[in-house]
Amino acid sequence: MINVEKIVENLIHWASTKGIKLVIGIIILIVGWKLVKKLLKIMNAVLEKREVDRTLASFLDAVLNISLKILLCIVVMEYVGIATAGLAALLASAGLAVGLALQGSLSNFGGGVIILLIRPFNVGDFIEGDGKSGVVERIGIFYTHLLTPDNKEIMIPNGTLANTTVTNYTSKDLRRVDLTFAAAYEEDVLKVKKVIENVINAENFILKDPEPFISISEHGDNAVGFVVKVWCKTENYWTVYYNLLEKVKIRFDEENISIPYPQMDVHIKDK
After folding, report:
1. DSSP string covering 196-258, please?
2. What is the dihedral of CA 203, 204, 205, 207, to 10 degrees?
3. Could you tell me if 252 and 183 are in contact, meaning their C-beta atoms sit under 8 angstroms apart?
4. What transmembrane ranges does the database entry give (predicted)?
């Protein structure tokens, strides 16, 4: 026969001991959850005010959100009386198994952290890395997304980018345009230099300081090479590059300056 009085007595004892702890633990969990959200909101506001990169801010928000909530749950479980030693061992074992299975992904995650902290490039920069080049469209946790000039998306693992040479073409305000033009040996060197100089002076995107440089670069097999080095703003690099190629050729034609073709003299001897 069921002893009702014993059951009621046990319930009253549980409610007065562990039950109160459980209620308090739930209250702590609810309040702590709200405090975590409030803390993250304050942190995001501070990061936004200091104009921290959105990718880094999003990454920090996600990491802190998960970490603080896990810590809160562990604290509540300890307070209520739930043993967390076994749970910690289980989580450690599971973490080891997952880590072994996802070594590449963890390497990419670590590479993403390094990129976000060191900032070798930012969203919008034109970079070259791992033999690929393009504009950085997004820095993800595992992959960096590049957009090529012909509108193709390239995803490079962050682990690779963090451990290879990366060239950032747009991190500086100014860039130098280097070009080489050829003229026949019969042409007047001073005249050729003057024609190139006039083209440079007429180009609005080329800066006067640093001063443009024009000089003979080589005595080639078929022509004399003239090296041209001019400075411009980074965003005008390709405009200056193609304008010089086109306008120098037009001016050479107008001034009857010949650009010789590669040629070879062949001598045939009779037996």
Report:
1. HHHHHHH-TTB-SSSPPEEEEEEE-SSSEEEEEEEEEEGGGHHHHHHHHHHHHHHHHHHTT--
2. 90
3. yes
4. 20-36
- CATH node for 174-254: 3.30.70.100
For residue 80, what are the contacts with CB-CB under 8 A and spacing of at least 6?
Answer: 18, 21, 22, 25
- Which are the contacts of 168, defined by CB distance < 8 A and separation ≥ 6? 120, 121, 125, 126, 127
Crossing angle of the two packed helices 103-118 and 54-80, in degrees rounded to 10: 120
Task: Using alpha carbons, select from 89, 105, 91, 161 the residue that is nearest to residue 132.
Answer: 161
The pLDDT averaged over each successive group of 10 residues in the chain (271 residues) is: 59 59 77 85 80 66 77 76 62 54 66 82 89 88 88 92 90 94 93 95 93 93 93 95 95 91 75 64
Domain 121-168, CATH among 3.20.20.140, 2.60.40.2470, 2.30.30.60, 2.60.40.1080: 2.30.30.60
Q: Cα–Cα distance between 42 and 54 in angstroms, integer? A: 15
Closest CA to 127 of 118, 139, 136, 119: 136
CATH 3.30.460.10 is right for the domain spanning 4-101: no
Q: Coil, helix or strand for 122?
A: coil
Distance, CA of 28 to chain centre: 41
CATH 2.30.30.60 region(s) of the chain?
121-168
> Which part of the chain is CATH 3.30.70.100?
174-254
